[in-house]
Fold this protein.
Amino acid sequence: MSTKAQAVLEAFRHLPPKEQREIADSVLRQLARPQPARPRRTIADIAGKYHAQPDPDAKDHDRGFAEAAAA
């Protein structure tokens, strides 16, 4: 057990029984609460999020390479 956990446990032991019971109930409620399941994302969800945005001013590197090779 870590030193921090030991310090918390020691402080817990020095509390009055009523406060110990309140803390124990709260911790048990927190641990017993079902954790919400995260929905799994599908590839369609991820792919549908992104859209191609071509840049009309972009240089066509393939065309320049082909023209240089032909010359």
Notes: The chain has four helices and no strands. Helices lie at 3-13, 17-32, 43-49, 61-70.
